[in-house]
Amino acid sequence: MPKKLTWLSFAVPILAGLACLGLTACKILPTPSAQNGGTAPAFNPDKMVEDIWAAKVIPYLQQKSGPFSEVHALATADPAAAGAKYGNPKKQANSPWTFAVRLEGKIVAANTQSRAATIDVDVDGDGKADARVQIGPAVRGTALRDSLDFIQFNDFTNQIDFAQFGKAFNSYADKTVLSKLPREFLEGRSAKVLGAYTLGSGQDLPLVTPAEAEIGPKP
C-alpha cells in the first residue's frame, strides 16, 4: 500500500521556509561532524586578543592616536572630521565615534574604592580634570575594540561573540597593564596613557580606556 500523505507532510517544510524568510541574514549552516572533517574551533576571545595585541593593536593605536587636547577639541567641533583622522571610519553607522588618543598630564583626583577605579587627569595644566582614565580591574565599555578599523561586527557569528570580544580587550589590558599600576597616593603624580575613548554627551569627563599606561613617582 502506498504511504498516505497528510497536509502536515507539506506544511512543515513550508512553514520552516517562511520562518527563515522572516529573519534578516538568515543562514543555513552545516553542522560540523566527523563526516565533513571534524568540528569548528571553539570561540576563544581572550586568546584572539592576546594573539593580536602586540602585533596589531598597540602599533595601530600608536599610529592612529593624537594628543588628547587636539582630538577632543576636534571631536567636540566636528565628530566626523575627528573620526576620519583619529577614529574608525568603518564603524557601524549608528555607533558613536571612538577615538585613539595619547594623554599625558597630572592626576588631580582618584577613585580607587570602586572596582571600576579611575583617575582624573589635568592635561592642559589649569588644575582641572580634562579626562577620566580607567585603571580597573573592572573596565567599562568597548572603546579599545571599537577604535580598531580591522575589527568588524560582520566578522563574528553573532552579537554575543562580538560583545565578548570587546570585554576580552578590557580583561587583557587589566591583566597586562592596569593591574601593575599603583593604587595609593595618586594625586599629584604624572600619568601617561595610550588608549581610546568614545564620544559622549559632553556632560561627563571623557572616559579613556588605556592600552598602555604609566604613573609617575610620588612628588
Please give a structural write-up.
It is a single chain. By secondary structure, this protein is α/β, with parallel strands linked by helices. It has six helices and six strands. Helix 2 (45-64) crosses helix 6 and helix 3 (68-77) packs antiparallel against helix 4 (79-86). It is globular, with a radius of gyration of 23 Å. The model is unreliable at 1-36 (pLDDT under 50).
Number of strands: 6
Q: Biggest sheet, strands in spatial order?
A: 2-3-4-6-5
Number of discrete helical segments: 6
Q: Percent range for helical residues?
A: 25-40%
Could you tell me the mean pLDDT?
86
CA radius of gyration: 23 Å
N-to-C series of helices and strands: HHEHHEEEHHEE
What topology does this entry show?
Layout: H1 7-21, H2 45-64, E1 66-67, H3 68-77, H4 79-86, E2 98-111, E3 116-122, E4 131-137, H5 143-146, H6 159-176, E5 190-198, E6 207-215
Parallel strand pairs: 1-2, 4-6
Antiparallel strand pairs: 2-3, 2-5, 3-4, 5-6
Helix pairs in contact: 2-6, 3-4
